[in-house]
Predict the 3D structure of the following.
Amino acid sequence: MPVIEVSSANQYAVVSGDTPLLEVYAALPAGLYPPFPPVELPGGLNGLIGRGGFGQNFFFSSEILGATFETSSGEVVQAGGKTVKNVQGFDLVRPLVGSFGRLGRVVEATLRLRPGLAFVHLARRGTLEDALTLEPRFTWQDGAQVHAALFGHARAVSAFEAAFGGTRVSESLDYRSRFPLGMGVGQGELRDSRFGWVNGDAVPPMPELFKALVGAMAGGSS
Amino acid sequence: MNTLARDLTAKIGSQKVFSKIGERMMYRHDAIVVGQTPLAVVMPETTQDVVTAVKMARAAGVPIVARGAASGLSGGAAPSSESVVVSFTRMTRLEIRPHLREAWAQSGVVTGSISQNSRPHGLIYPPDPASWRTSTIGGNLAENAGGPMCFKYGVTGDYVKTLEFVDGWGVVHQLSRDSFDLAGLLIGSEGTLGLVTSMTLRLISPPKFSKTLRASFATVGDAAEAVSQAISSGAVPAKLEFMDGSCIQAVEDYLHLGLPIHAGAMLLVDTDGNDLETVEEELELVEKACVAQGGTVQRASSTAESDLLWQARRSISPALGRIRPQRMNEDIVVPRSSLPQVVREIEALGLEAGLKLVQFGHIGDGNLHPNILFDPRLESEDRVHALAFDIARVALKHGGVLSGEHGIGSMKRPFMREAVDAPTLKVLWRIKNALDPQGLLNPGKVLPDELEPGKLETGELEPGAVYASH
């Protein structure tokens, strides 16, 4: 099951966890954008949420309005909902996002969509750090190349293109073949403002108290 | 003086502990609920003071309630039983780090002072709950406070980069958020999982330009439709506020601003950015959408005119205070497209209950503040509670939530069983039990009591909950 519901009026999309990221792009109406760049990555939306996003230059987990996830013991938990603001009970979305699957598997998630009258994806030689100063929506380093993408008002997008330079990337990218063993954290060719991404299953160190959360999520006894 | 107050005084110092009844009584309320008088009030000046207070309260088996400026609207800081209140108002160290575009703040820093101190460096802290002049940043984190700017800029929690907190055992933790975001769980947990002592906050450059318009409409439905059209045409206003007809009337009666009193709804909209033409174009998109829905639009031509238009929105609280001495301020959120229907249903419920009801809110987020105005000497609080419950049910029926920015506290706790499905509620209890097995951290808040297996649910309305007057 791919994209389940798109609401242009409310600017959200309900998407199943196994949906490939480019399928989400394909399903959206013109002028609405999801919180990730047009790059296919391992594990579809579930993988992306587990890793805490990719290439974002904004607070990613606030763009995940809600998620239904299945814990390791098979319970189905509803985190968040369909609204942008929500302080009803403990926030389970934030800890779920970037938990590398340790809290459960995303069955479906509600993504906030943002409007943009124009969009550009650019690449050139350079570094992530200097791209970040231009405040793109998304940016990542791939070897000697730095990518940046932005949507928004036409003038803002063209001003960004002029400042960043490089060439337009018009085709969608697929990075899956680089990660046959999974998309892990480490030093490599590919990196964004949070992590370097390498083939494998390495994850960042987990804080002690987060382990208590993992235990609580998995079942009462642990 | 009770034993615990005496021991805390001996250990932490008489300057930092209030033990006299007159002093303690000042710390039993927030802006809506009067709770139990605490056994002792600790005024920590350092994280170590918090650690000591938590360890001693824990050893005595006494609950611990964190408190900021007590401007909260859900009872979050009002003790539900005899407790040690840890009041953060002396932990006010603030450090602006312009090169990192961040601020480091202790929990007692007043929200407004963050932007005030950042502005000379060309930076601001955007979240702007209505109480920003008095509320503390620690309280804002505890409730994950919002405000008008949040539609475009995000809520409190979105600005927290790292935080330091003291857990229920008195152990200090430093948390960052790139992965395994435990801080994200702490934020909005109302002091029921730990006590946040300091944090670093992301700052942004303030937009260079800002433009304002006011639009009035025959019906709430027209206003909501205009908002929807404006947003789907690509506008992302910085603020998008709504007032219903009764609210417009209340403010007009108070200030005589010449507001459109025959309108069913009014919108106040700001667009902002660094490119003036884009800011103007964005406001035009909004204006077009308003006109298309039959709205009457007035654009401010200067900052002074903008301020004048916004005065109506800023004056809602005092205006409502004139109508009835007390009010229950609801805080529901629904998907934007259901707003016209939701506002109509709530209006009808108010009429049916025979209580004075006005509605306003952050319409871009679908965050609505239906306010029930009442006089406890003349109007039954049971009826007020019943109406509040019915309003919550309308939100839930339309796929919404009980609270967008005020928190659950003790006020909305009775609604949680209806709002959250049983398996999810079970998980929330397990999390609470894992981080606070003795239930000493702000008991009686957020989650309803866990039911013993086989035990039937009894009425959960807080006995003896009293409203603080304004």
About this structure: Chain B is about 35% helix and 20% strand. The first helix of chain B runs from residue 3 to 12.
